[in-house]
Amino acid sequence: MTTIQQADFIQSIADALQFISYYHPKDYIQSLAAAYEREQSPAAKDAMAQILYNSRLCAQGHRPICQDTGSVVVFLRIGMGVRWDAELDLAGMINEGVRRAYTDPDNILRASMVSDPLGSRRNTGDNTPAVVHVELVAGDKVEVRLAAKGGGSENKARFTVLNPSASLVDWVLETVPSLGAGWCPPGMLGIGVGGNAEKAMLLAKEALLGPIDIQQLQARGPVNRLEELRLELYAKVNALGIGAQGLGGLTTVLDVKIRDFPTHAASLPVALIPNCAATRHIEFELDGAGPAQLSPPSLDDWPDIRWAPSPEAIRVDLDHLGPDDIAAWRPGDRLLLSGKLLTGRDAAHKRIQDLLAHGEPLPEGVDFSNRFIYYVGPVDPVGDEVVGPAGPTTATRMDRFTEMMLGQTGLIGMIGKAERGPAAIAAIKQHGAVYLMAVGGAAFLVSQAIRGSRLIAFEDLGMEAIREFEVVDMPVTVAVDSRGESIHQSGPAQWRIRVEDMG
User: Residue 2 CB: number of other CB atoms within 10 A?
Assistant: First the structure.
């Protein structure tokens, strides 16, 4: 009989979460590097280069790949011959491991979990609790599969119950374009088929824990219907032309993973969950001999890609900028921003909305006149850092506030990731503003451009407080110009045609 010690289990969970915060899986890096070499879209290629270079920096510096260090999901297969020497229950041990990992002073990870989700939405402060799934199996070992899933990709999870005679492929090809780019492609699609509603979702989530092996499958050929579907969906989803970060290009997904389960004769439950560019997962086994031993990858596994700003990039002085200046920018223009900008996300926007609705002034120091706001919730700094990894958050969550911000505060520009919706684009056009896009999945790289940070307002909101950043050559791309033209509409449309022509 195997005995698992509480201390070993907790340490294994904590070590694994730290490990995946700064090490991409080797299969992801190699697959993305191959996609980078194939890519023909300049915008998508630049985005991939930023992601790959950011990954190397994080592996070297042991800092998070993305500022959203995820909610923790744990799949356990516990052998029935296992005995526990523990005072805490299973969830308690896992949550203690999460707590230690996310508050590690050498590599603080952002706490994103909030309690009372329909009420106060108070941050739990240590990213607990984890979501835990347990299966009792034969044997005397504990198998742990662990992931840290970011909100941008998790928010794009989809579920449906198809007619048994309906086409899974058709549903996926209708669904993926509707996801937008908030899930930070290129990544993976996990698809669960069968069982019932909750089983299909679990299958999709578990599918994402598998290795990227679509190239090996292409080389040897499919041996069953699921492998045929994987190849078909991989080709057809990439033919949509969505591309890296939704900018248009040849690669939207690096792999499509499918898991199935028997289902009711009248049903065909289907779930789809994407994984983002900050793919974070690991698996290990405990046999009573101590905590898990995790082997760091070699930096030789990373491609020798050093991202640098394009010579064609336009340098912008944020401190001396007005509507006439931004009117000259066009979708796809690459900019390097220097100067001061403000930050803010959902919670800060809601407070601003409430203040304006009640005729109250904004907090001292919050002046958006002719300024930009960066949608970001950074990681806390360590050592001599000004700020921790500080990549963009999904801009569409701020769409409902865009008219208010542009019409009532004097704001002229916004920075985030992914596309903007019709209402936000209409407001941008009406007010002659712009929306700029930073690369999701390159948070540590972006943070290198931030040379100063000070708290301005709403300190109690933690990572969602309003701060003033001073930046030097912060790389962004014009996503929506002052005329309301969006690269997230034009880019994929152009590349869809190009892919068809190439085929």
Answer: 16
As a whole number of angstroms, the longest Cα–Cα distance in the chain is: 74
pLDDT digits (tens, 9 = 90+) for 163-209: 999 999 999 999 999 999 999 999 999 999 999 999 999 999 999 99
Return mean pLDDT, the chain.
96
**Which pLDDT score, from 0 to 100, does residue 500 have?**
86
Residue type, 245: Q
Query: How many residues are there in the chain?
Result: 503
| 144 φ, ψ (degrees, to nearest 5) | -120, 125
CATH number for the segment(s) 150-286: 3.30.1330
Q: Could you tell me the pLDDT band of residue 248, with boundaries at 50, 70 and 90? A: very high
Q: Is 170 exposed, middle or buried (0-12, 13-18, 19+ CB in 10 A)?
A: exposed
Report pLDDT for 502. Answer: 83
Tokens found for residue 312: 């064609």
CA-to-CA separations, 144 to 97, 99, 164, in angstroms, rounded = 13, 18, 34
The strand pairing partners of 273, in sequence order, are 190
SS3 49: helix
Which of the four CATH numbers 3.40.50.1110, 3.20.130.10, 3.40.50.2300, 3.40.50.2000 does domain 314-491 have? 3.20.130.10
For 60, how many CA atoms within 13 A lie in the half-sphere containing its CB?
11
For 74, counting Cβ atoms within 10 Å of its Cβ (0-12 exposed, 13-18 middle, 19+ buried), the class is buried
Strands 2-5, 71-79: parallel, antiparallel or unpaired by DSSP? unpaired
> Helix H segments across 370-461?
399-408, 422-431, 443-447
Model pTM greater than 0.90?
yes
150-286 shares its CATH topology with 314-491:
no
* Spans of all domains in the chain: 1-24+65-148, 150-286, 314-491
Q: What tens digit of pLDDT does each residue of 331-347 get? A: 999 999 999 999 999 99
For residues 67 and 443, give the distance between their C-alpha atoms in angstroms, rounded to a whole number: 6
Angle between helices 6-22 and 90-102 (to 10 degrees): 40
C-alpha 364/C-alpha 120 separation (Å) is: 25
pLDDT (tens digit per residue) in 257-312: 999 999 999 999 999 999 999 999 999 999 999 999 999 999 999 999 989 888 88
Cβ of 240: how many Cβ atoms within 10 Å?
17
The CA R_g of the chain, rounded to the nearest whole Å, is 23
> Helix (H, G, I), strand (E, B), or coil: what is residue 339?
strand
Report CA-CA distances (Å) from 93 to 128, 145, 287: 11, 15, 17
